[in-house]
Amino acid sequence: MRLWNLGACVLALLVVSCGGEVGGVEQQEAGTLQLPLTSSSPDGRTYRLVGATFTIKGPQTVTLTDTSADTVHATLTAGPYTVQLGGEWHLEATDAPGTAVSAQLLSPNPLPFSVTRGELTQVRFQFKLPGSGDADVGIKVDNGGWIAGTLQFTERENPSSGVSPFDELVGKSVPFLISYESSSLSREGYSGKMLLVQTSPVTVQFGGAPSEILERVALTMTGSPLFFGLRADSNGFIQFDGLRIRDYANTFELDLSPSMPFVGAVDREGFPAARAFQVEVTGALRGTYSTAGYDGVRGPANVNGLP
Questions:
Q1: DSSP states along 14-83
Q2: With contact defined as beta carbons under 8 Å apart, do 93 and 118 qualify?
Q3: Sign of CA pseudo-dihedral 133, 204, 280, 210
Q4: Cβ neighbours of residue 127 closer than 8 Å, sequence gap 6 or more
Q5: From CA 60, how far away is CA 149, in angstroms rounded?
Q6: How many Cβ atoms from other residues are within 10 Å of residue 119's Cβ?
Q7: Contact, 126 vs 179, CB < 8 A?
Q8: Is the peptide bond before 258 cis (omega within 30 degrees of 0)?
Q9: Are residues 154 and 173 in contact, defined by beta-carbon separation less than 8 angstroms?
């Protein structure tokens, strides 16, 4: 086994409670959105997010454009929101100001979040940096890969079970991200040449409009491990072998079906290489309920990933 590491950077948006009365809103109804924009990496370099604007929509609409400070704040009333990263943003190292560092935004944009009275809410825009550079903007270092894409929920899986919290998702297209800090890769040749991926605990995010059920799913699944594989056939074509991720209490599961074979990179021995891939599959999001068994939504999904 070996570790496949990419440089990565995480921008953390922290929603914390605030005291006093702001804009006529009582203390128990208000919160503060805090956005740390710099952090130091393990190699001693510090990175900054430059040129970003943040558009916040919900019970209030706020646009943050002044990101010159290390941390910016916005006071918000309690409720569901989305925050969208915009502007001509880029990352740069503070020891090389004016020089942009190549970075890829992976998180759904906009991201939903909720301001809850007296509670701490954490939202992260996650970026990946190519090469060996690492940065921790706001919270932690992320040295791994991802599974991301869009789930198009076209139907209920068990409509006979009656009203379901998944009903609100039917007909919606939901961006998602499963990100992990590191992964262990191994090869298995008993049933085709497979690259097996076992990840560290994952962070799960859903994009789009605020959704109570998706917020619950993301919260409970975050911290779970993930296992999946890529399989190469005798002709050198590769197949994504699908995945199923559950939270530790088996409350929810996200299921992605195996893909059709696609042209991809293989190593000298014919095993799939640990490279980025993109596939079309069927996705399903389910919940377990004691009275009705499994219920959920399903539909086509486009998926991209990096082991």
A1: EEEE--S-BTTB-GGGEEEEEEE-EEE-TTS-EEEEES-EEEEESSS-EEE----SSEEEEEEESEEEEE
A2: no
A3: negative
A4: 8, 9, 10, 11, 91, 103, 104, 105, 106, 137
A5: 29
A6: 12
A7: yes
A8: no
A9: no
Q: Give the closest residue to 155 by CA, choosing from 302, 300, 303.
A: 300
Residues facing residue 306 across a β-bridge: 146
- What 3-state class would DSSP assign to 119? coil
Distance CA 111, CA 98 (A): 28
211: which strand partners?
none
DSSP state of 138: B
Spell out a b/e string for 123-160, using b for 16 or more CB atoms within 10 Å of the CB, else e: bbbbbbbeeebbbbbbeebbbbbbbbbbbbbeebbbee
Q: Is pLDDT at 210 greater than 60 in this prediction? A: yes
Whole-number mean pLDDT of the chain?
Answer: 79
- What tens digit of pLDDT does each residue of 253-303 get? 999 999 999 998 888 888 999 889 999 999 999 987 545 567 899 999 999
